[in-house]
Amino acid sequence: MPDGVIATTKPISKVNLLGMTRAQLEHFFAEIGEKKFRAQQVMKWIHHQGVCDFQVMTNLGKALRDRLETLAEITPPGISSQQDSTDGTRKWAISVTGGALVEAVLIPEGDRATLCVSSQVGCSLDCKFCSTGKQGFQRDLTAAEIIGQVWLAINSYDGWQPGKGRVVTNVVMMGMGEPLLNFDNVVSSMDLMCDDLAYGLSKRKVTLSTSGVVPALDKLAELSDVSLAISLHAPNDEIRNKIVPLNRRYPIDKLLSSARAYIDAQTDKKRVVTIEYTLLAGVNDQVEHAQELTQLLKDYPCKINLIPFNDFPNSGFERPSGNAVSRFWKVLMEAGFIVTVRTTRGDDIDAACGQLVGDVNDRTKRSARYRAQYEELETLEG
Ligand code: SAH
Ligand code: SF4
């Protein structure tokens, strides 16, 4: 070795077991020559008891615990800050590897508590009214970083104790990012959300929201049966092309057919697609738009969730007046649709759709946006 060169030993990176599904964990244990049931024991420690230290896993045997310590880790993402709203909404800024921040929001409501989870740092799809879109895309979250948001929320309420009741009853993939563009990690995370050895949520209580990545949605139908929300936001392609650029690739008729095929593939025939429609003053909020929407969705198995636009600095859009929202709602109601209007929660901590968090890249503070209210899920849950 030449003089002056210092030898360094790069630590071998350990595999993070937090984001592994049951099948992946069984595979991991098989690879290291252990029995499958070890996967089940470890899953329960991680997701039922919140344990990250192998030495605490007393049913594993000392030799295996020591071995796991050298090979693996259980590392949730870190919390950068936490804010509580006066209405009970709690929001976390979560720091992920590389210094970026993403958000998760827990919205308690009666006997439900809905956790809104992020899937990417930023988003590449550039919807014109969305502040995450304006940030651009930074990177996909790992499965550990996605399921880690559920883990952190429960941990934050000390929710591991037996008999404590569920801290998180519902999950919506409506945080930062387009979940279908981070397909494998999102599918693994949703698998864990629904697995009894992890969070055991019913498929009706986990909702994926997409702006319409049609090929990925077609693929999802073969792998998953969680609830589906489609970000439609327009009654025709002309308007949708302007506000959701992805529509130029996958126009409305293709998207609606793919979403219908998704729910048709489910065993539970009563399920419907949630249509999300963000109301933007003067853009898509007029009575004629509502009438056009009733024609478009006639005979379509859906319910409609209206989201009055949540403003952010330099958005270029405005929130419609209460009257405009009511007029729009009335047209749909009178046509026989099930329609909810999403109310804003966590206003005092900027936890509503379309607000806050920043420091993507450790450089500029930028606003991201947040999703809030989920009355619509009540109907989905039946
Ligand atoms: N990328 C996915 C999921 C995250 S966005 C999607 O687009 O569906 C979740 C929902 O919030 C979407 O319906 C999105 O269009 C909507 N949304 C984004 N920015 C918003 C804003 N500023 N005001 C109101 N709704 C917004
Ligand atoms: Fe991405 Fe969804 Fe925002 Fe569109 S609305 S830019 S898909 S996060």
Overall domain count: 2
What is the 3D form?
elongated
Q: What is the CATH topology classification name of the largest domain?
A: TIM Barrel
| Cα distance spanning the termini | 70 Å
Return the structural class: alpha/beta
- Proportion of strand residues: 15-25%
Q: What descriptors fit this protein?
A:
10-stranded mixed beta sheet; 14 strands; two-stranded parallel sheet; 382 residues; TIM Barrel; binds S-adenosyl-L-homocysteine; binds iron/sulfur cluster
Describe this entry's structure for a reader.
The chain is of the alpha/beta class and 382 residues long. The protein folds into 2 domains: 15-73, Orthogonal Bundle (DNA polymerase, domain 1), CATH 1.10.150.530; 78-381, Aldolase class I (TIM Barrel, Alpha-Beta Barrel), CATH 3.20.20. It is 32% helix and 18% strand. The protein is built from 12 helices and 14 strands. It has helices at 22-31, 37-48, 62-71, 131-135, 143-156, 183-194, 214-223, 237-243, 252-264, 287-296, 322-334, 376-381, and strands at 15-16, 72-73, 78-84, 90-95, 101-109, 112-116, 120-122, 137-140, 170-173, 206-210, 227-231, 273-279, 302-308, 339-341. The strands form 3 sheets. It has a 10-stranded mixed beta sheet with strand order 3-4-5-6-9-10-11-12-13-14. Strand 13, helix 11 (322-334) and strand 14 form a beta-alpha-beta unit. Helix 10 (287-296) runs parallel beside helix 11. The protein is elongated. The protein starts with 14 loop residues before the first strand and ends with a helix. Residues 353-382 have low confidence and may be disordered. S-adenosyl-L-homocysteine (SAH) is lined by residues 127, 129-130, 174, 178, 209-211, 231, 276, 278, 307, 309-310, 353-354, 369, 371.
